[in-house]
Amino acid sequence: MHISEGVLSGPVLAAGAAIAIAGTGLGLKKINYDRIVHVAILASSFFVASLIHVNIGPASAHLILNGIVGLLLGFAAIPAILTALLLQSILFQYGGLTALGVNVVVMGMPAVLSHYLFLPLLGKSSRLTFIAGFCAGFFSILLSSLLLGGALWFTDKNFFETSLTIIMAHVPVMIIEGIVTGFCVAFLLKVYPEIIPLKKK
Question: Whole-model pTM?
């Protein structure tokens, strides 16, 4: 779901960069440095999951895992995602440096929203935990697709059909991400509950 270099307009790139900088600053402030290893593990998972992708016009479809990253990290997901996207851009030319801010917003903001919407449901029951994980994975990709489509549309109204194509092409990814995230969260809650930032009663 990377937006390539040379696609977006200057104002859209500038807005994306500004939001990404603000989000990264807030994320760095909110990182619990006792859990920095968790941030690194999830950033690495995001980095690896995004390496296998299929090009769709100016963007690409692939497993992203921003739902689980956001679910477990909250605002710290933004610097984690920024790090992974920066390395992908430098090492593999996925996306681009000029579009980095927009790509961070497209993948990072839905991750943060997933944290606040679905984290409170984890641990209530095994079924509810899976459903919350599924919703986090599905919702994060849905919102990312909408944000990506919006960035293209604000650049040029002629991108409307391309935006719809990208959103529709990601529907299978939304479902797969939901299932993967649901199983991952349920598994982690059993074998490594320390990684899930549940509030202690």
Answer: 0.86
